[in-house]
Amino acid sequence: xxxxxxxxxxxxxxxxxxxxxxxxxxxxxxxxxxxxxxxxxxxxxxxxxxxxxxxxxxxxxxxxxxxxxxxxxxxxxxxxxxxxxxxxxxxxxxxxxxxxxxxxxxxxxxxxxxxxxxxxxxxxxxxxxxxxxxxxxxxxxxxxxxxxxxxxxxxxxxxxxxxxxxxxxxxxxxxxxxxxxxxxxxx
Length: 187
Ligand SMILES: Cc1cc2nc3c(=O)[nH]c(=O)nc-3n(C[C@H](O)[C@H](O)[C@H](O)COP(=O)(O)O)c2cc1C
Prior knowledge:
With about 190 residues, the protein is α/β, with parallel strands linked by helices. The chain has one domain: Rossmann fold, CATH 3.40.50.360. Helix content is about 40%, strand content about 20%. It has seven helices and five strands. The protein has helices spanning about 20-35, 55-60, 70-75, 95-100, 105-110, 135-150, 170-185, and strands spanning about 5-10, 35-40, 80-85, 120-130, 150-160. Helix 1 (about 20-35) links the parallel strand 1 (about 5-10) and strand 2. Helix 1 (about 20-35) packs parallel to helix 7 (about 170-185). The two termini are about 15 Å apart. It binds flavin mononucleotide. Flavin mononucleotide binds near residues 13, 14 and 20.
C-alpha cells in the first residue's frame, strides 16, 4: 500500500468558530474521510516575527528569526497538499498571515538567488471568505506568490462572499460545496 497523502491546513481565522476556519475544517474532514493524514495550524496560535527587510538572508540563505516559522516550514515541506483558509481584511490577507508570507523571503532567496533545488511539486488550495463582495484577487496574488516559493501549484479555490449577511442555511450550502470540491481533489 502506498504512503498516505499528507494534508496541511493553515487557518488565518480568528477562532475555531470563524467561517473561514469552519470551511477549512470541512475540507480537512473530507480529506480525513478519504484516508489522508491531516495536520492543521492556526496562525493566531503561533509566534511569528516580522521580516525586517534588512536582507541578511540574501547572503546566508538563513533567516535570523528563530520562531514558529519552522513549524510551518516543516509541515509544508512534508505535505502533499497545502490548504490555506483566510478571511479578507481590507481587501487583502489579515496582517498575521501576511507576516508569515513576508517571512518566506528566505525561501525566495534560496530558490531564486542561491539557486538551491526546491521541494517536489505540491498542490495548493485557497479558501477565503469576505463579509461583503470584495475582489478576492489581491489575496489570491499573495497566496500564489507564497505557494510559488515552495513549488506549490495553486490548483483549486473556494471563495464565499457576503458572510456578514448570509443565513446559516446558505453557509451550510457553502460547507457542502467545499466538501464536494475536496471529493473531486481526492478522486
Ligand atoms: C479588520 C477587518 C477587515 C475587513 N475587511 C473586509 C473587506 O475589505 N471586505 C469585505 O468584504 N469584508 C471585510 N471584513 C469582513 C470579513 O471578511 C468577514 O466578516 C469574514 O466572515 C471574517 O472571516 P471569519 O468569519 O473567518 O472570521 C473585514 C473584517 C475585519 C475584522
